[in-house]
Amino acid sequence: MSNTANGSDSKKFKGDSPSKVVHIRKLPDDITETEVISLGLPFGNVSNLLMLKTKNQAFLEMNCEDAACNMVGYYSTVMPVIRHQPVYVQFSNHKELKTDNSPNQERAQAALRAFGASHMAPCAVASSSVLRVVVENLLYPVSLDALCQIFSKFGTVLRIIVFTKNSQFQALLQYPDAACAQAAKLSLDGQNIYNACCTLRISFSKLTSLNVKYNNEKSRDFTRPDLPPGDGQPTLEHPSMAAAFAPGIISAAPYAGAAQTFSPSYTIQPAVFLPPAGVTVPALPGALTSLSLAGAARMGFPSLPAGVCVLLVSNLHPERVTPHCLFILFGVYGDVMRVKILFNKKETALVQMSDSTQAQLAMSHLNGQKLYGRAVRITVSKHMSVQLPREGHEDQGLTKDFSNSPLHRFKKPGSKNYSNIFPPSATLHLSNIPPCVVEDDLKMLFSSSGAEVKAFKFFQKDHKMALIQMGSVEEAIEALIEFHNHDLGENHHLRVSFSKSSI
């Protein structure tokens, strides 16, 4: 295949080796050049653009391969959505773009020039790999972990310290190089973490490196997971840092014990969120725009204040949805403590997650998904917990306490399940398959409820695991609910989760 892409390409590319050219598929019919360029802007300069509107595709050429790698890596976990439509980002098989002078490509080049004129001039060379971050108008808590999620999109966060100075919540954050720091500053300076509040003010620090002594909720050195948690604020050897440091105003970790155990599985990786229906990518050149609460979920920002862990789930199928059904489905994204289907309104339920981050994960991934023919709506409940029925009061089994269930996926600190959270997809990941179970057995099982099995594949090196592709995302959701923990014999209970891969 040629290493140059041009406007007459008709092949569907499935690039999997790194290239500075990124292939974007499933774009809306009315996509604009500016919206496509905005997908690449947070990761570096976009040097060329090829639009294939009749095929709902586009190619973006980034200024370097590292920028393209960051872009593809990020969007493999945080699926971008443009005008309610998920789009797919992958490496192209082409190493560079070759564009012509057609009217279609002229518009693309004009959009690139417009961006360059308005955004390239301020790009002075960064003087430091350390950023000083001030969070103004702090109406909601912002934790060290939240800042790591936000800033890790622009490069590896090596070290971070949070503190309060002059009654302002601040942070010092170190990247491996000044280019990452510059990219983060250009994209995030002046942006809101939450709607109309928690505004980021970013400048380059005079420090060239951060010296962190403890890994806890006030400071982290991701290059030194062996550091102790300490019993107070970190010791800062640089005099200007020591003078600035005061106890942080936030002390919430995203999962219970995360700050203390400091598991390698929870370090600098961006959180996995699928945008709720209606969230769009930025439409202005070079801008991430002020992020609403829903928009924050798309960018990987935790949107729920600490302590908010009860979700209101509506538009359920009253004859088919049970507390156990919701426990299994929401349990893909966190540990479900309690479920209550409302007695007088059985299409509505309350789901209590273990913590606010897990509640955010469940809401971001499941809101708008179809369950038994109905698009589920999920919002935050005003209740802080789900109350069990009083003794002697029968509620027809509509309220269930799952806090001691053996099926929780995230109870074990550092569980590999944390790194295997993906949006609902038609392809399911199966595990814990005994040797006696063959492909036909599993295909028959998953089609027994009337669903379509499109494809199946055992893992080549481990036949305890397999991928199975259902006829639709909705069928996959229902299959996961029905067959997760299914007894396959030989003391093996099937484990089912959503996969990021396809067959």
Summarize the structure.
This protein has 503 residues and is of the alpha+beta class. Helices cover 22% and strands 23% of the residues. The protein has helices at 33-40, 65-75, 103-119, 144-151, 178-188, 239-244, 258-261, 293-299, 323-330, 356-366, 439-447, 473-483, and strands at 4-5, 21-25, 46-52, 57-62, 81-82, 85-86, 88-91, 96-97, 130-136, 159-165, 168-174, 192-194, 197-204, 219-221, 310-314, 336-341, 349-353, 370-371, 374-375, 377-380, 399-401, 427-431, 453-458, 466-470, 487-489, 492-493, 495-498.
What does the model show?
- With about 500 residues, this protein is α+β, with helices and mostly antiparallel strands.
- It folds into 4 domains: about 20-115, Alpha-Beta Plaits (2-Layer Sandwich); about 130-220, RRM (RNA recognition motif) domain (Alpha-Beta Plaits, 2-Layer Sandwich), CATH 3.30.70; about 310-410, Alpha-Beta Plaits (2-Layer Sandwich), CATH 3.30.70; about 420-500, Alpha-Beta Plaits (2-Layer Sandwich).
- About 20% of the residues lie in helices and about 25% in strands.
- It has helices at about 35-40, 65-75, 105-120, 145-150, 180-190, 240-245, 260, 295-300, 325-330, 355-365, 440-445, 475-485, and strands spanning about 5, 20-25, 45-50, 55-60, 80, 85, 90, 95, 130-135, 160-165, 170-175, 190-195, 195-205, 220, 310-315, 335-340, 350-355, 370, 375, 375-380, 400, 425-430, 455-460, 465-470, 485-490, 490-495, 495-500.
- A 6-stranded antiparallel sheet has the order 12-13-9-11-10-14.
- A hairpin with a 2-residue loop joins β5 and β6.
- α9 packs across α12 (about 475-485).
- The longest helix is centred in the N-terminal third of the chain and has 17 residues, at about 105-120.
- The radius of gyration is 24 Å and the shape is globular.
- About 45% of the residues are buried.
- Mean pLDDT is about 75; it is low at about 5-15, about 115-125 and about 230-305.
